[in-house]
Specification:
Length: 441
């Protein structure tokens, strides 16, 4: 029968379907023959990254995607030792990569005793089974990796329940082949006529029951959250949104003088945090929400309904962008698409370009781990200057735009003034009989 899991213990480093000696040795305590004592320090797991980009995708884009996957792996506690890339029209239906590339990956894994292989796409249940049978190490796809990070970061009861639901929804279609003890259970009453449920059918029923229970639990949390939000209807609500690791929590701490957890890792914030902020004598509620990411698993978006309601019900969105990132425009598009998916794209928005202190016009790829066969584009044009970007975005964007550095506190007073003016404007629209406290310039 399937073991019940929770959001803290179920992760790709412990959910391997094969108890292989190679992958287990790296995490077992070793005995010193001289002293007879055991070294209980657990070595970091090593990971191999695999990507199958479209043949038309530029090498620089593939590199950026692999950098992000490596950052995800690092956030989950794994050390990346190698990157493999194979360009195909479409992934192989059986093993995702071709036979030759699979043999190459297998040879490297066997030689280095790597703990796991991480794919930059979601694998089908059959691909997952075939890869595990061939490589005999943990196989982790992008969805499972993100879910694991969410599980590590979730603190509140609501977030833990949301993550556990996503875990079980991921697990359900992948139960086939999860265990080797799939003998038929005896059934049919006293006479035991004919076979009863198979072990896998029992496991599926247990998982479905758990999913139903978690959904009911989340409905209760949603009702409680709705009650809390209704009590805030008299105050303007502002939500920080953006790609993961763009500095939302740092801005939250700076504006609200609070201590929201902030770290230079992906998904440092999973739980929604709400603080009361007063700017220019104008109070409002500021919420820090979970960051978005490319290929964010749909099941996570569905599970985090109550957290995303903070965005849906906000009066103003503050879209924070890491302008130092080479693909910041793609990240803007990812966030906008996700806002459309949750029906929150039509709200008033401030666009805040953060990390201007880290911006560089140099296009040289700073990654230490490049993939084999990468063609460096020596003729790539330099990025525009920060002043050119300011002129461009301030001219073409309908919504207000501001450039700051939350870390260096650059242009923070201008951000406060801009935010105060828009909060006052929204307050006046809601209560037209009251004079706005802050006049529009």
């Amino acid at each position: 029968m399937a073991k019940k899991t929770n959001s803290h213990s179920w992760n790709p480093t412990t959910s391997n379907r094969h108890n292989t000696t190679d992958s287990a040795d790296s995490s077992q305590p070793t005995r010193d023959p001289a002293t007879g004592t055991y070294n209980t320090a657990v070595m970091a797991e090593t990971a191999v990254l695999v990507a199958v980009p479209d043949k038309r995708q530029p090498d620089a884009t593939t590199q950026e995607y692999l950098d992000e996957l490596a950052f995800l792996a690092e956030t989950a506690g794994a050390q990346v030792t190698k990157r493999f890339v194979q360009r195909l029209e479409k992934p192989d239906t059986r093993t995702f990569v071709g036979e030759g590339k699979l043999a190459e990956i297998k040879a490297y894994v066997n030689h280095t005793k790597a703990s796991m292989v991480i794919f930059d796409d979601e694998l089908s249940p059959s691909q997952l089974r075939n890869l595990e049978a061939e490589l005999k190490v943990k196989i982790v796809d992008r969805s499972l990796l993100i879910i694991d990070i969410f599980a590590r970061r979730a603190k509140s009861a609501t977030a833990r329940t949301q993550v556990e639901l996503a875990q079980y929804q991921y697990l359900l279609p992948r139960l086939t082949g999860l265990w080797t003890h799939l003998d038929k259970q005896r059934g049919g009453g006293v006479s035991q006529r004919g076979p009863g449920e198979t072990e896998i059918e029992t496991d599926r029923r247990v998982v479905r029951d758990r999913i139903d229970f978690l959904k009911e639990k989340l409905e209760t949390f949603d009702k409680q959250s709705n009650t809390q939000r209704k009590s805030r209807t008299g105050v303007v609500r502002v939500a920080l949104v953006g790609y993961t690791n763009v500095g939302k929590s740092t801005i939250m701490n700076m504006l609200s003088r609070s201590d929201v957890f902030a770290e230079n890792k992906l998904f440092a914030t999973v739980d929604s945090t709400v603080r009361k902020v007063v700017l220019e004598n104008m109070p409002f509620l500021l919420s820090d929400t979970v960051g978005f990411i490319r290929k964010l698993p749909t099941r996570l978006i569905e599970s985090f309904k109550s957290t995303l309601d903070e965005i849906r019900e906000a009066d103003l969105l503050v879209h924070v962008v890491d302008i130092s990132h080479p693909s910041f425009e793609e990240q803007i598009a990812v966030v906008n698409d996700t806002l459309k998916d949750i029906n929150a794209a039509d709200k008033p928005m401030l666009l805040v370009f953060n990390k201007i202190d880290q911006y560089s016009t140099d296009t040289a790829n700073a990654s230490e781990q490049q993939f084999e066969g990468m063609n460096a584009d020596e003729d790539a044009p330099e990025r525009p200057s920060l002043e050119q970007l300011k002129a461009t975005y301030m001219a073409k964007m309908h919504d207000p735009v501001i450039f700051i550095s939350a870390q260096e506190r650059t242009n923070i007073d201008e951000l406060r003034d801009l935010l105060a003016r828009h909060v006052a404007k929204l307050h006046y629209q809601r209560y037209p009989n009251q004079q706005p406290i802050v006049e529009e310039e």
